[in-house]
């Protein structure tokens, strides 16, 4: 959710609050997943109070690093090819089109539409930013990094993206020439303390959902330019070293210095189809001669709590050697979004999380059908930019869709794994969506009460037109591949980003829900003791805006590309 004043907090600690010590990675994953579940009788372990004036900084700087201001979409020549690309209908996003070259202008547009600030919000004395990539609690643990080579106007090396002023900090300047066409890789890291500060032990889940959101936001932004985004498997230690995240002296020290550190997450090839050469990103990672710049700013000078299990689960789920991708290494496209006559750029920059929904608005069957395109497991898997895609099982709590009875529905494609093989499902009767089945019918009031209670008593799950749960096969992470624990949440976040944009393109609005009572949800779905468990929930409806909240532009001043902000920070 985008509004940082959300105050849904754990009221008591988890009854099994002990630290994982001397466990196998599989055991740590099982223990973490169990302990991070919310229950009716107790929420997962988290802080009992918050001081919003002492919130960790949502923006990181590297003092002493040279900074370069990037061009914004409003700086673009209205008659240029780039301006025409931004004006394409949202329903055409992802269709093949001539790829634009990698320049500072296209790079600025990419980062603005993927990770940039989209507006500043004010309510009374509080002021906060919303961004193109959504985040749990608007806490934004995800940091974006560029590894660039031979892009005109940009130094070769590693750059850190600063969302607050849309600039790049040169963190590491590569030494030596490499004759190549322009090459761009984007890496993501997580500042896990930003989520743990508010959500305690459950915060690791939210960091991985946010990585999925960020990958989805980047993939859709790249599609504007005719580019593709594909994860390149890389070992954790190798990526951490290339980004300088293992340079301890470059980060603040102190009593809880681990809270200041960033966790290397993944690396993505970005650019026109067919570029770069397949082995080039690997050679860029192996660049050892570089000149480092800057020291990381302190994010939280006085943390009040510690959550050791966050660091345990992070260590247990790292891939220290690159995993072979589960599909051929080909450039991926984005899932199709509903066409609406709206400019794709406006939809990407206009994405918001709804805070309230109309309890009387009814969604049409046509709208539901178009949203299902964002949910179909095989389609999400086939177009996934992630190297380890997993087909998740969607369930829909349908409150108000024209001509459909309230109830819990299951989306099941032939040939896909299912959590409901033991259940008798009834065809939903949606003519153009034979994949939709009815699991259980409810009365309107009964479903309202159930959905609200299962989602931590939040009205948004009951007043929207529908709520969605994404189930994941967690057994693979418990037994075979602990690193898959991250992959499952990332895949859920990736689908969530498509739902955000799909809802926006239909004139509706969505909100991700990370707070739900895990086992009661499974029981309501007849999935007691099943390896299929909830990874993410989502809700869509007609948003009711709070007229008290004032909105200001994200970046009010137009700039020229390639202008240094200052010699160093």
Explain what the structure shows.
The chain is of the alpha+beta class and 569 residues long. It has two domains: 60-333, NADH Oxidase; 353-541, NADH Oxidase. The protein is built from 16 helices and 21 strands. Strands 2, 5, 6, 7, 8, 9, 10, 11 and 21 form a nine-stranded antiparallel beta sheet that branches. The longest helix is centred in the middle third of the chain and has 22 residues, at 203-224. Mean pLDDT is 89; it is low at 3-20 and 565-569.
Short key terms for the protein model shown above:
569 residues, single chain, disordered N terminus, nine-stranded antiparallel beta sheet, alpha+beta, 2 domains, NADH Oxidase
* Low-pLDDT stretches: 3-20, 565-569
Q: Whole-number average pLDDT? A: 89
Number of separate structural domains: 2
Proportion of strand residues = 15-25%
Largest pleated sheet: 9 strands, antiparallel
CATH superfamily of the largest domain: NADH Oxidase
CATH topology of the largest domain: NADH Oxidase
CATH class of the largest domain reads: Alpha Beta
Oligomeric organization of the protein chains: single chain
* CATH arch. level architecture of the largest domain: 3-Layer(aba) Sandwich
Distance between the termini: 31 Å
The geometry reads as globular
Q: Which class do the helix and strand fractions yield?
A: alpha+beta
Rg for CA atoms: 22 Å
Proportion of helical residues: 25-40%
Pfam families: Nitroreductase (PF00881)
InterPro entries: Nitroreductase (IPR029479), Nitroreductase-like (IPR000415)
Protein name: SagB/ThcOx family dehydrogenase
GO molecular function: oxidoreductase activity
């Amino acid at each position: 959710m985008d509004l940082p004043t959300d105050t849904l907090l754990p009221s008591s600690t988890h009854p099994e609050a002990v630290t994982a010590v001397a466990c196998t990675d599989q055991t740590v994953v099982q223990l973490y997943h169990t302990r991070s579940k919310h229950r009716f009788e107790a929420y997962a372990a988290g802080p009992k109070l918050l001081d919003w004036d002492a919130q960790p900084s949502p923006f990181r700087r590297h003092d002493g690093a040279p900074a370069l201001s990037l061009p914004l979409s409003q700086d673009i020549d209205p008659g240029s090819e780039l301006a025409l690309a931004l004006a394409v209908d949202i329903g055409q996003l992802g269709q093949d089109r001539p790829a634009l070259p990698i320049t500072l202008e296209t790079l600025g547009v990419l980062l603005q539409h993927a990770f940039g600030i989209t507006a500043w919000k004010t309510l009374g004395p509080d002021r906060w930013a919303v961004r193109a990539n959504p985040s749990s609690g608007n806490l934004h643990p995800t940091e974006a990094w560029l590894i660039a080579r031979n892009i005109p106007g940009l130094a070769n090396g590693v750059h850190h993206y600063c969302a607050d002023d849309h600039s790049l900090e040169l963190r590491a300047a590569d030494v030596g020439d490499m004759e190549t066409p322009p090459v761009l890789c984007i890496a993501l890291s997580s500042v896990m303390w930003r989520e743990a500060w508010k959500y305690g032990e459950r915060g690791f889940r939210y960091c991985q959902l946010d990585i999925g959101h960020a990958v989805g936001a980047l993939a859709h932004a790249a599609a504007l330019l005719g580019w593709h985004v594909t994860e390149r498997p890389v070992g954790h230690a190798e990526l951490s070293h290339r980004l300088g995240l293992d340079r301890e002296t470059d980060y603040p020290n102190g009593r809880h210095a681990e809270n200041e550190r960033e966790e290397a997450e993944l690396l993505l090839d970005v650019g026109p189809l067919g570029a770069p050469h397949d082995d080039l990103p690997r050679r860029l990672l192996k660049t050892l001669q570089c000149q480092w710049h800057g020291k990381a700013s302190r994010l939280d000078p006085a943390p009040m709590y510690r959550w050791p299990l966050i660091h345990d689960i992070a260590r247990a789920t790292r891939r220290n050697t690159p995993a072979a991708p589960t599909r051929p290494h080909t450039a991926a496209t984005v899932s199709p979004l509903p066409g609406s006559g709206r400019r794709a750029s406006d939809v990407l920059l206009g994405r918001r999380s709804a805070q309230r929904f109309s309890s009387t608005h009814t969604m049409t069957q046509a709208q539901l059908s178009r949203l299902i395109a964002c949910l179909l497991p095989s389609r999400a898997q086939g177009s996934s930019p992630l190297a380890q895609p997993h087909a998740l099982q969607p369930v829909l709590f349908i409150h108000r869709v024209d001509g459909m009875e309230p109830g819990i529905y299951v989306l099941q494609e032939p040939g896909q794994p299912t959590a409901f093989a033991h259940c008798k499902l009834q065809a939903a009767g949606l003519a153009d969506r034979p994949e939709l089945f009815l699991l259980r019918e409810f009365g309107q009031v009964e479903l309202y009460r159930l959905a609200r209670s299962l989602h931590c008593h939040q009205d948004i799950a009951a007043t929207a037109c529908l709520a969605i749960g994404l189930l994941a096969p967690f057994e693979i992470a418990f037994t075979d591949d602990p690193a898959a624990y991250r992959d499952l949440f990332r895949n859920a976040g990736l689908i969530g980003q498509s739902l955000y944009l799909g809802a926006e393109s239909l004139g509706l609005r969505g909100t991700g829900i990370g707070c739900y009572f895990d086992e009661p949800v499974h029981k309501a779905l007849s999935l007691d003791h099943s390896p299929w468990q909830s990874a993410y929930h989502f809700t869509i409806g007609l948003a009711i805006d709070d007229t008290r909240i004032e909105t200001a532009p994200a970046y009010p001043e137009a700039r020229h590309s390639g202008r240094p902000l200052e010699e160093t920070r």
